[in-house]
Design goal:
The chain is elongated and about 85 Å long. The strands form 4 sheets. The protein has a 7-stranded antiparallel sheet with strand order 15-14-13-12-18-17-16. Strands 2, 3, 4, 7, 8 and 10 form a 6-stranded antiparallel sheet that branches. Among the domains are: about 300-415, PH-domain like, CATH 2.30.29.30; about 440-485, no CATH class. The protein has helices spanning about 1-25, 25-50, 50-90, 120-125, 200-210, 210-220, 295-300, 335-340, 390-410, 440-460, 480-485; strands spanning about 105-115, 135-140, 145-150, 150-155, 160-165, 165-170, 180-185, 250-255, 265-270, 270, 285-295, 300-310, 320-325, 330-335, 345-350, 355-360, 370-375, 380-385, 470, 480. About 35% of the residues lie in helices and about 25% in strands. A hairpin with a 6-residue loop joins strand 16 and strand 17 (about 370-375).
Amino acid sequence: MEEKLWILEDLNMMYIRQIALSLQDSDIQKKIDHEIRMRDGACKLLAACSQRDQALEAAKSLQTCSTRIMAYMSELQRMKEAQVMQKATRRSSDAGPLDDRLPCKGKVAISDLRIPLMWKDTEYFKNKGELHRCAVFCLLQLGGEIFDTDMVIVDRTLTDICFDNTIVFGEAGPGFELRVELYSCCSEDDYSAGSTPRKLASKLSSSLGRSAGKKLRAAMEPGPCSPVSNGGAAPLLLPVPSVPGPKYHLLAHTTLSLSHVQDSFRTHDLTISEECSYWLPLYGSMCCRLAAQPQCMTQQMMSGCLKVKQCGGDPQSWTKVYAVLKGSSLFCYHQQEDLEANIEPAFTIAVNKETRIRASEKDPQSKVQNICISNQYGGEEVTHTLTTDSREDTHRWMEAFWQHFYDMSQWKQCCDDLMKIELPSPRKPAPVMPKQGSLYHEMGKVFCCRITLCLLRFVLCSHPITTTGEVTGLGFHVNYYIIFSCI
């Protein structure tokens, strides 16, 4: 059966590669191949794990790799569908003019993730028995980008599940959907039970009857190797052969969008899975800080030389500046070198959602249209007039302004003020714990040390020590500092 699964998966991968070749996109194919190799390595590591923490981390890696593979394949399928739709649109004779204006991309960051727990009084205050521990982590997906948090061990002594990771998605659009999934696994399972032979499992399930046997087989099958849900769509990747080890369950999930972005700590509702709701007493909410930085707020959208004149001034008093359109302002420098030297701009013109921009009448002498920028300051309208050296430059500046206004209208509250995003710190490697032997092994080491100390005391008390630090009188020389170093 396992050989058939491998053959079918190879055929499936050939189909995926053909799609990637038809789209001329080798990057996504390389990502899929990389995650498949990582998944195979995680399967081998999981099968060889004997320690609890190692098995939990391996199962977590396996779950993450499987989710990334599914996301990349779904992205490939969407690209193929978009290509087909684009060809169909071109062939349509009655298709009108298409607006190819697209909003800019941006960064979306989620941090300070907190999930409150709702323990009963009998569990949190009065229960003094053995602690029931669960390993939990979060998977966060935005488009084709998938990240995972660190794994946290949870028991009844915790009132909140805290993830200190700052996760940044670099290629998000204003219509993004950030899916957050909470997974859990009981950390006290006996992982050796996963190595039960399939023949024995089959005999047990057949002797228990159809209904009970089906539950037994489902319980003995490892979960991380099965494909994750893809929003109700049919899975594109077949499951890999079964591997013994811990099984993670989806406890809860939620989806965040642009309307949830706020430059502060905020609470969001969680959808709890009914099948696994008994694992942890989730309160039904999640707290986090969700921030966004559109490229129109952080990058130069347009720059170049302009002539600026303020309304009401001398008609001939034009000021030559080097202008930069970025964020909610048009920064005007005396020269380009001032920008490169980080010198403050000579003056700034506001360009925000309340700003009005229009093209004035053509100058009868230069035949060039001017650009008028109007803002309200203290109840009064202030207008700045911009002009360029050519009609082509004027057209480029007008197009940059319209694109800038379109970006701000799509990103909405994210363009009011620049939100702060802290770069995620690199993950620290897991501490290497010393290998612990059995009780008899530890007792044996203590016993050997005591024998060595007794022997050393006998030698030092019974025989003279030379000035060179050597014990004599036994027919040989013993360096006592070597004995001390070996204890």
